[in-house]
Amino acid sequence: MNTPPLRVTIWNENVHEQQEPSVAALYPDGIHGALAKSLAAPDLTIRTATLDEPEHGLTQDVLAATDVLLWWGHAAHDQVSDAVVARVQQRVWEGMGILILHSGHMSKIFRALNGTSGKLHWREAGELERVWCVDPAHPIAAGVPEHFELPYEEMYGEPFMIAGDAHLIFMSWFEGGEVFRSGFTLQRGFGRMFYFRPGHEAFPTFYHEQVLKVLANGIRWLKPTVDMPFPKTHRPEPLSPIAPKDFALHKVGIVKS
C-alpha cells in the first residue's frame, strides 16, 4: 500500500525580505520559498503561508490539511493573531507536528507550547557557530556528523528559558564563548515540537547542507503518530458494568437518594 505524502506547510512572516534589500538578495523567494525548494521530495507535499495573507495563511482548512508546520518569525511576533495561535496550538494537541526555527523562540506559539518566556542572551556579530550533536541516536540526527560549523551566525546564549521536559539533540558553541541548547523536542498532547536555532535572515544558513538535513529529518520525525480525537470525547457507555451507588449525581456534595 502506498503511503500518502506528508503534508507540510512552511510559514514565514516574510517581513525582512520586504524591508531589507540584503535579505531579499539572499532569499529572493523569501525564506519560505527557499526552504520549500530545498526540502522538496517525493514523499512531501509542501505549501507556504505568510503573515500578510488572510488569517496569516493558516486557516482552519489549511491547518486541517497540514501534518507538519514549519514556523519562522522574528520581527513581527506581536502581529500574529491570538486566534491563529490558538488554532495552531489546538492542531498540535491533536497531533500536528511543528518545527520552530531560529527567532521563533519569542513567538506566541513557542511560548504557548513551552509554557515559558523563551528568553535568552543574543548578539549579532556574524560569528562562527559550531553545532554539536549530543544525541546521535535520535532520528532527527540521522546522517548528521558529530559536529558541523556555520561560519556566520547570530549568537544565542544560555540561560535559555525552555520547558523542563525538553529533550536535547543539538548544542551550539559560539566564537565569543557562549553555549546554547540549539535543538530540542517536546511532546504536547498528541503532537510533537522540534525547535532548531540556526537560521538568522542575514546569513545563508538555510542553504547549508547539514542544516537542511536536520530540517528534513525533523519534518519526517514530526509526522502525526496518533489517529484519535483530542480532547477525548464523552463516552456514555462504560467498558464494565457500574454498580448502583447510594447518592444522587449533580447535587451539592453527596446526597442520599
Strand neighbour order, sheet with most strands: 2-1-3-4-9-8-7-5-6
> DSSP helix count?
7
* Element-level helix/strand string: EHHHEHEHEHEEEEEH
CATH architecture of the domain at 6-118 and 181-221: 3-Layer(aba) Sandwich
What low-confidence regions span 5 or more consecutive residues with pLDDT below 50? none
Major beta sheet summary: 9 strands, mixed
Shape: globular
CATH homologous superfamily grouping of the domain at 6-118 and 181-221: Class I glutamine amidotransferase (GATase) domain
CATH class category label of the domain at 6-118 and 181-221:
Alpha Beta
Tally of DSSP β-strands: 9
Q: Helical proportion?
A: 10-25%
* Mean residue pLDDT: 94
CATH fold assignment of the domain at 6-118 and 181-221 = Rossmann fold
Rg measurement, Å: 21 Å
Percent of residues in beta strands? 25-35%
Q: Roughly how many Å apart are the termini?
A: 57 Å
Structural class: alpha/beta
Structure commentary:
The structure is a single chain. Helices cover 23% and strands 28% of the residues. With 257 residues, the chain is an alpha/beta fold. The chain has a domain at 6-118 and 181-221: 3-Layer(aba) Sandwich (Rossmann fold), CATH 3.40.50. The chain has a nine-stranded mixed β-sheet with strand order 2-1-3-4-9-8-7-5-6, sandwiched between helices. Strand 3 (68-72), helix 5 (82-94) and strand 4 form a beta-alpha-beta unit. The longest helix has 13 residues, at 82-94. It starts with 5 loop residues before the first strand and ends in a 36-residue tail after the last helix. The model has no long low-confidence stretch (mean pLDDT 94).
